[in-house]
Amino acid sequence: MKAQKKPAGKTDKKYDVVIVGGGLAGLSLACLLGRHDITVGCIDQADPKTKPKDLRTTAISYGSRKVLERAGVWNHIQDACPIKDIQILDGRSSVLLEFLSEQADEKDFGWIVDNHDLKTAMAAQLKTLKNVTHIAPMGVTGFEVEEDSGFVKLSDGSAVEARLIVGADGRSSFVRGFMEEQYGMRTRQWSYHQRAVICMTEHEHPHNYAAVEHFWPEGPFAILPFTDDSKGVHRSAVVFTEHGPEKTSLMKMSDEEFELALAARFPEHYGDVKLSGTRAAYPLNLVHAEKYTAPRMVLVADAAHGIHPIAGQGLNLGFRDLDCLDQLIEQALRTGEDIASSAILKTYEQKRRPDNMAMVAMTDGLNRLFSNASPTVSLLRKVGLKMVSRINPAKRFFMRQAMGDR
Ligand SMILES: Cc1cc2nc3c(=O)[nH]c(=O)nc-3n(C[C@H](O)[C@H](O)[C@H](O)COP(=O)(O)OP(=O)(O)OC[C@H]3O[C@@H](n4cnc5c(N)ncnc54)[C@H](O)[C@@H]3O)c2cc1C
Question: 311 CB under 6 A from ligand 1?
Fold first, then answer.
């Protein structure tokens, strides 16, 4: 083997895989890869002890649950609320499209899980894996890539060596930025000029495990069923999508005004609705890298593709990347192939691009269609939804998409 030229600073650690980013994708990948006979380092710039709690919930699809089970994470999750019914409403009209789990072999459509609980479950599983090191807080300042190895330079002046470097560092990925600069790779991106305002609510009557997506002229409004609290209080998570200047944002309202806005949008059968805890806002944009791989490097999840949350599929799509990469690495380990060979990276790119492209296009299209107040577009939407509800194969297609069961 050729002698390695080490970057400035000491290279005191060597891993098979270094994952840059310890968010939900990076930690899940660390848990998946930790099942194999390889060493894994997962680096995150944020301090897990002081990082503010992620107040969002995630709709985990049937397919993603299988990935989390394989990663050994699912069993550590405290609260997962099943989705048994999906209702789609448009403006003031009644339910336009309804998917019932009884039409899907009694399978739940997915589960709503609190992001903080999910992350805690991943951290608990990581503790059981001796071959995985969670390095945080630690910034990443650069990379050097050689034929047989890559080097990740760290903010404390040291560096770590890896056979494969995975960028799981989110929408503003530093790894993707390096790939753009070094290899002239490009990224398609634009802002939706929208924000998602999220919160947890408490309501008088049970949600009956229904997820509601209600398309209002000002943007989609989602109600996601969550588990009752320890006192039996009924809860649902809410995602409001809004556009317009920040000064008119729902974030600027008092809690009382915000609760009135909630009450105006919740269907009556929920009874009285109250805000539980605080709100948070996320600016919405689209990011899609034109290439996911470079020598010894690969992008996964939001670092490769950050999409609109309109269908609650961003992380689910990311889990499909992780599943694919995990299977390719497992196969390489079985055959003695280099886990970052150009053939492996090419296969990953070929397998993941069409699926990701389709979801990028679908969520972008849905947002254009459903965030449009024009009467003609509104009529088209209603006709489209009615058609889907009456054509069984179309309905089954959308149910499969929602479940992520491929
Ligand atoms: C309002 C909203 C609702 C959503 N709901 C759903 C849903 O219901 N279902 C679903 O599937 N998806 C949903 N999503 C999408 C989902 O939240 C994202 O796809 C997911 O969080 C992406 O995870 P990630 O780990 O790829 O990126 P991130 O969560 O962004 O994590 C990136 C990590 O990398 C670290 N990092 C960044 N730069 C560096 C660096 N230079 N060095 C070291 N570390 C670094 C960060 O500290 C962070 O921990 C939603 C998104 C939004 C905004």
Answer: no
